[in-house]
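Glycosyl transferase family 2 (Streptomyces xanthochromogenes), 341 aa
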Amino acid sequence: MTERQFSVVICVYTEERWEDILAAVSSVRAQSLPALETLLVVDHNERLRARLTREFEEHAASGEVRVLANAGPRGLSAGRNTAIAVARGEFVAFLDDDAVAERDWLRHFAEGYDDPRVMAVGGRTLPAWASGRRPAWFPEEFDWIVGCTYRGLPPGRVEVRNVLGGNASFRTSAFDAAGGFATGIGRDGDKRPLGCEETELCIRLSTALPDAVLLIDDRSVIHHRVPPARERFGYFRTRAYAEGLSKALVARSVGSGKGLESERRYTSRVLPAGVARGVRDAVLGRAGGAGRAGAIVTGVAVAAGGYLLGTVRALRGGVTFSVAPIERAGSARAGEEDEAA
């Protein structure tokens, strides 16, 4: 069988992450299953784009590493859509600009696509704490705060509602069926850290293709850097609040049934168990137990507040986002539209 070809997308926006960006690209180039290409999409930062173009000039001719400017509005969603539109691979994989992938990352993704119904495969993201260790108060149930796989997700290769965007792959044909990432819902480096754009896309994809299967394979591992600022409780609160706002947008797009399906199990089973563990550890005199229990309770309360405010804003029409079809070179959709024209 011919090896599957992946276009790897890394969206970047600031020179402050220069060394992280280089490390991310190096981890892709070291894959046991070589990527067809690495697409670096620069989010409206001409100085960074020019610097990256110079850095990877020798790889540009072969197409191994291509540097692109975000062709849409500022933000992660438009950057990803820019890459999807020009990707040459049958599959598109996304890697955060401050993460490094383990050597078999793409190979494990590829194995998940043996079933033709599989439209997306995600992986496991582990935190690389700047301090060298997890803060004692930081609960594993909230590792999504720092963009990582959280306690409560099932192990192994399992079917899920949605993959997590910083460590995920899709068939490129999935975007022909469902469109791209919604703009106005995802992250912008200079604004409040909203998210959930991959959740909204995955639910939309499952609606467009009812037989579609989405998987997480925890052997596809990346290590995500957590800077000192994100180890602080203030960031924890801010990110939890932003998650609530984002979930309100997702619910507005796809309905609260699908939009909050996984979250209901998480809040009714995973988090109470986490609080109980924290209280038990506190009683036993273990470090951080009370802090973890308190952080879980605070996180839930703050996220709920964000969700309520986001819902009110959505009802008033104060927040908008849009989904546009992606014009991919060589896609069936592009060909159909050319004929219609």
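Residues 182 and 322 are 5 Å apart (CA to CA). The beta strands are 6-12, 37-42, 65-69, 91-95, 99-101, 118-129, 157-159, 167-171, 213-226. ok done for today
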